[in-house]
Amino acid sequence: MKDLINKKIWFLTGTQYLYGEKALEQISKNAALVVKGLNESKHIPLQIIFKPILKSQEQITQVCTEASSDANCIGVITWMHTFSPSKMWINGLKKLHVPLLHLHTQFNKEIPWSIIDMDFMNLNQSAHGDRELGHVATRLKIKRKVVVGHWEKEEVQRSLGNWVRAALGFYEMQDLKVCRLGDNMREVAVTEGDKVEAQIQFGFSVNSFDASDIVKEMQNISVKEVEALMRVYESEYDVAENLKEGGAQRQSLYDAAEIELALRCFLDNGGFKAFTDTFENLGDLKQLPGIATQRLMADGYGFGAEGDWKTAALTRVLKVMSVGLEQGTSFMEDYTYHFGEKKSLVLGSHMLEICPTMADKKPSCEVHPLDIGGKEDPVRLVFDTPAGAGLNLSLIDLGNRFRFILNEVEALTAIKPLPNLPVARVLWDCKPNLETAAKAWILAGGSHHTVFTQALNTECIEDLADMTKVELLIIDKQTEIRNFKATMAGNERHFENTYLTIFQMKKLNVLLIFMTG
Ligand code: MN
Q1: Strand ranges (DSSP E) for 168-216?
Q2: Burial class (CB in 10 A: 0-12, 13-18, 19+), 176
């Protein structure tokens, strides 16, 4: 993920020639100070690059074209320091193909009541200048984020930072390659979907391979390498007695390490940053990859079980978005419920594959039977997750469009130990409560597979949804079922209309071809 940190955001300051050289010089200095201030914020994970202030249509068009073609520019922040007549921005904005954030700030914080004069006014006009840009951006139907407030304020910087994280995720999506090992778990609906449409909408590509490709890769792996990885396991985790040297299931640890090395090689050679597998298509693999998948996720690879390529891609994207943050992000599943007297909770887990970035302490490395799939017992890491705010995010294909569904949750420490449950897990309290959250989730068609993150917040996901132009349904403390249903009904009409319009336009094209032909 190191190369992602080198990506940049460009800062474009709008003005015009009207104010004279002296004022323009000051505008340039002020804008540079704003950028310097933002770059000092711990909330913004990438460097913001100050670009020369923009005074004409030609300069605006040129910088927007450059931003869209520069390999390292993944987003643009605009700020109208003064009035920048926005017909000058139309051609440039039409050429802009990276996410846009409109920062509605002002260089000066407060009105200097006793000394304010026309010189001050020449330097602090964003109150009307930014509205002019907003008008044109709205008229051009450009999805963008608007952040309002003084640039030194922490909330403003935090909001900018969330958008920068979304821009990183959006950038990652464009070229992400997802490897599927085997197809879907048979008869499962929600993990299916239109991969061609996904590539058109998001950019990521999904292609299939199978377990034999991983088995083939094992021929290039030496005993020495496997033993070295087993030593890594022994130093990083509390390895169970039966997996230690001389233990009855030592061979299982060897096989697990060999699978990890082969899988990692295969993914890296193919440039895959996300993958799926399924216990029904394991071929000659001795175990379902458990510790291998967990450790790959911890290193930033996306994963979805049972062929779930949408969740695999999304796990990778959210991991990229959370770069530099301490909290974890993992593939997740709503595992089982606790209908308590006072409160209903969810225990989240999967049969093996929970990312150890979520672990509250050193995970234990264990081997247990899986009971399904008919393979040998898989090695896995077992741990609990720290308490704290988090969210679950699902991406589904509705046939005519994709939809994100998000539920804000509060992770809790385990009420009681779970000595006989040999999987990593999280216990969470859904917002507003499990009854409403699960009802809304099920009405929305959300998957049982999600990405769970304690690193990112809802605002990051809202920004990502805007960038990808995908519907997002949010279930949070304010969710109430009647309103939620009304929102879904409204969205349905909106997307149906969009779909109809495209269909009608296509028909019209056919008609025109017929008439001119
Ligand atoms: Mn599953």
Answers
A1: 177-181, 205-209
A2: buried
Q: What is the DSSP letter of 396?
A: E
Biggest CA pair distance of the chain: 84
In the reported structure, the alpha carbon of residue 311 is separated from the centroid of ligand 1 by a whole-number distance in angstroms of: 11
Q: 109-118, 293-302, 310-319, 491-500: which range is least confident on average? A: 491-500
Q: Say if residue 250's pLDDT is above 50.
A: yes
The 10s digit of each residue's pLDDT in 115-127 is 999 999 999 999 9
Cα-to-centroid distance, 353 and ligand 1 (Å): 9
Q: How many CA atoms lie within 13 A of 477 on its CB side?
A: 3
Minimal CA–CA distance to 242: which of 369, 425, 357? 369
What distance in angstroms lies between residue 334's CA and the mean position of ligand 1's atoms?
Answer: 9
Tell me the residue ranges of DSSP E strands in 288-442.
Answer: 302-305, 329-339, 344-349, 364-367, 379-382, 388-397, 402-412, 425-430
In angstroms, what is the span from residue 251 Cα to ligand 1's centroid? 27
Residue entry with tokens 């949010």 = 474
User: What residues contact residue 366 under an 8 Å CB cut-off, 6+ apart?
Assistant: 240, 243, 379, 380, 381, 382, 422
